[in-house]
Amino acid sequence: xxxxxxxxxxxxxxxxxxxxxxxxxxxxxxxxxxxxxxxxxxxxxxxxxxxxxxxxxxxxxxxxxxxxxxxxxxxxxxxxxxxxxxxxxxxxxxxxxxxxxxxxxxxxxxxxxxxxxxxxxxxxxxxxxxxxxxxxxxxxxxxxxxxxxxxxxxxxxxxxxxxxxxxxxxxxxxxxxxxxxxxxxxxxxxxxxxxxxxxxxxxxxxxxxxxxxxxxxxxxxxxxxxxxxxxxxxxxxxxxxxxxxxxxxxxxxxxxxxxxxxxxxxxxxxxxxxxxxxxxxxxxxxxxxxxxxxxxxxxxxxxxxxxxxxxxxxxxxxxxxxxxxxxxxxxxxxxxxxxxxxxxxxxxxxxxxxxxxxxxxxxxxxxxxxxxxxxxxxxxxxxxxxxxxxxxxxxxxxxx
Length: 400
Hints:
It is a single chain. By secondary structure, the protein is mainly α. It has a domain at 28-297. Helix content is 56%, strand content 4%. It has 15 helices and four strands. The protein has helices at 34-44, 49-72, 82-94, 127-132, 135-151, 153-166, 176-206, 209-221, 230-242, 246-257, 264-275, 278-284, 299-316, 320-344, 376-381; strands at residues 74-75, 102-106, 113-116, 122-126. The chain has a four-stranded mixed β-sheet with strand order 1-2-4-3, sandwiched between helices. A hairpin with a 5-residue loop joins strand 3 (113-116) and strand 4. The chain starts with 33 loop residues before the first helix and ends in a 19-residue tail after the last helix. Residues 8-16, 328-333, 348-358 and 361-400 have low confidence and may be disordered. Keywords: Cell membrane, Hydrolase, Membrane, Metal-binding, Metalloprotease, Protease, Transmembrane, Transmembrane helix, Zinc.
């Protein structure tokens, strides 16, 4: 049964506005996008690297940044921005965080929020965001940033950036620059998927899909919510997905290439899809991976789940470029089937119901017969020289 116990505190104080489900011991794998989860599971296998990184980063730059916000911003507490302070406590309680991160409010008219730090992460929200969102919407944003902290995105993003910098040595090698650009493109793609992950974490904290989508709409279009419609915004997302022809598809790829966040319409559509799916409902029912199971997570299984997710995304997309890719892949499969049929004696169409070849003519009784010897020639021709099926495959679970 899901835990619906309210956050502990003094009687009548520091309690959430309404009862929400709590997720004891929840692993970040529960809400992470498959592409994000696959990368994180692989990086977590580099045992010790993350601990060293936390110590080195925490001793220097993280301390410096925290001191800067401590000196120049307002830290929430029971006496300062109390409603934000209570939201952070509630979000940490719902996601069963080891500790409640500090929250700072900084003067900036641009609506924004961020999770900073590795050793002792904290959250920063701008005054522009505080003024833009209502309490329920702000709760989902706090939950989003808690998701970054629980996933360890700051640690592993820094780790990957360091690894990318190490790869700069390839720049002196022919095609090295192209290799670096490919790594950076993959890194940015992971960053964008990690944002989709934390939109889900925000939904787990707020537990109201309409509120989560409403917050993203406001970030896109401002505070005039009465002038906006969730259904119409989702229609925008569908139009963006299917927009125009191949030229628009290329332009969309170019527009997103340098972005760390997906576009708001994409985020709303992805969140709506996840909220309507079985994973979200299973988590609410208490069925989710636990943190103590994380060391046993398989890199191979997560990589397969990531590939399946991309494949499903291509299948569902109405984008003209993805449609062309589906046609090309389908055409290649058909061509390969016809080529296989030609060389295996199957008829065209690739249905696999090949007609058996006519039986050989029977030699007359007085015709000379070949010497069959011991009959081992037939055994050799049956393909036994290739070994048993799957002999060349790696053992199950290897590489994890």
